[in-house]
Design brief:
Blueprint lengths: L15 H11 L11 H10 L5 H7 L6 E9 L3 E9 L9 E5 L13 H11 L2 E5 L11 H15 L1 H4 L5 E6 L1 H15 L7 E5 L10 H5 L8 H12 L24 E8 L3 H13 L4 E10 L12 H16 L1
Parallel strand pairs: 3-4, 3-5, 5-6, 6-7, 7-8
Antiparallel strand pairs: 1-2, 2-4
Helix pairs in contact: 4-11, 5-7
Length: 327
């Protein structure tokens, strides 16, 4: 039994490996978006995440037995997707998973998704397509969700060419979890593509920031309340309504008819309660939900597989849930 505060927030001690990494990163001034000037942000976006042994050690790489190929597609504009395909042969109709990376709608990129996406491709025996959607502040809301929906439609239309004729799901972590949740609603309301599953990893679900964990964990490692405020400022631009369901899917008029969900939350994450509340709201709307809690973890822990002891088990839990819905 995990101990909780009076507000229901898990208080299990943070796992040592992820705590050490978080403290080391906090010593780097530009590791917090709240400390990044517009000029530096523009430079970081242009450079992207370098691919070298050091970044591979921290973030993980593409799983053995999986190929990764970049492709430019036409959606709302021309964008790059990365296609992860298991090299082994299979007689089954492979599922197809569309993945959206995190980074507060401002940072991140396809490389950041390599470990998660390729592990899902290998473990599920699926084709996973990671989407390089446009980033704020140069491309503010609703550019990202429209890009993500357009990519989903393109992937669904080209499934046979991608070698995946099975069921279709979406996957996202952090801001990508927000986008996956929003795209699931868009697909329902726009008449497709039909989704059989949504996987939301420590998702940003409610832009109003009123949950107990948001206040209790405002100085949490890896993501602070100041960081979230800055991310939303960059992302929303002149759009002031944070209760717009395309920003905060928990405020959608109805969650009925959405696909089954896997929702992962971390105990030392200010977004913890948003994920729990969304899981409960989905369940209340009749949507099957698997809520996976990792009390000793922080926001973003799946992006640090060598430092987060629960990254491996969490990937296995995710794949099990996807297999049940997609395979």
């Amino acid at each position: 039994m995990v101990a909780t505060t009076a507000k229901g927030v898990p208080v299990e001690p943070m796992a040592p490996g992820i705590r050490r990494l978080g403290r080391a990163l906090r010593a780097v001034p530009w590791s917090s978006i709240a400390n990044v000037s517009p000029g530096l942000l523009s430079l970081i976006q242009r450079i992207g995440v370098p691919v070298n042994p050091a970044t591979r050690f921290v973030f993980g790489g593409v799983a053995k037995g999986v190929t990764a190929q970049d492709l430019t597609i036409d959606g709302t504009h021309r964008m790059t997707v990365r296609i992860y395909t298991p090299v082994r042969t299979t007689a089954a109709a492979r599922p197809l998973v569309v993945a959206y990376h995190g980074g507060g709608w401002v940072l991140g990129g396809l490389t950041m998704n390599d470990w998660i996406a390729s592990r899902v491709a290998d473990g599920l025996d699926a084709v996973v397509v990671s989407v390089g959607y446009r980033l704020a502040p140069a491309h503010p809301f609703p550019a990202a969700p429209e890009d993500c929906y357009a990519a989903l439609a393109w992937v669904a239309a080209h499934a046979p060419q991608l070698g995946a004729t099975g069921r279709l799901g979406v996957l996202g972590d952090s801001a990508g979890g927000n986008l996956a949740a929003v795209v699931a609603i868009m697909a329902r309301d726009r008449g497709g593509p039909a989704l059989a599953h949504q996987a939301l990893l420590y998702p940003a679900i409610d832009g109003t920031g009123q949950t107990p964990s948001y206040k209790d964990k405002e100085r949490a490692l890896f993501l602070t309340a100041d960081d979230m405020s800055r991310y939303y400022q960059h992302y929303l631009g002149d759009h002031e309504d944070r209760t717009d369901w395309r920003v905060s899917p928990i405020h959608a008029a109805s969650l009925a008819g959405l696909p089954p969900a896997f929702v992962a939350v971390a105990g030392h994450d200010l977004l913890h309660d948003e994920g729990v509340h969304y899981a409960r709201a989905l369940q209340g709307a009749g949507v099957p939900v698997h809520l996976a809690r990792y009390p000793a973890m922080t926001h973003g822990f799946l992006s640090f597989p060598r430092f987060a002891r629960d990254a491996g088990p969490a990937i296995e839990h995710l794949i099990d849930a996807q297999r049940e819905a997609l395979a």
